Amino acid sequence: MLMARPVLKNLLEQYETLRALHAEQGSKETLRRLEDVSYTLCVSTGTRDIDAALAAARHRLAATAPAAGQHRARHAAPKSAQALAS
What we know:
It comes from Streptomyces venezuelae. Pfam families: DUF5133. This is DUF5133 domain-containing protein. The structure is a single chain. The protein is an all-alpha fold and about 90 residues long. It contains 5 helices and no strands. It has one domain. It has helices spanning about 5-25, 30-45, 50-65, 70-75, 80-85. The N and C termini lie far apart (about 50 Å).
């Protein structure tokens, strides 16, 4: 299942934050939220364990990351239009 880039990125960020909080606090609430996000990552990536889900999510994000300058190039005016504007 292909998740939208912002959704998958958000899930990864939540997981990392909750994992750090749980290591720091160890509260039941943090653990429950960490388990929920872990489950959602597994379902979203079609995997059965969190390590595989994290690897799959990171791989998908890397594969869909825009190349440097790609965003700018898409929106730049064609050279002929630039010449007309001069």
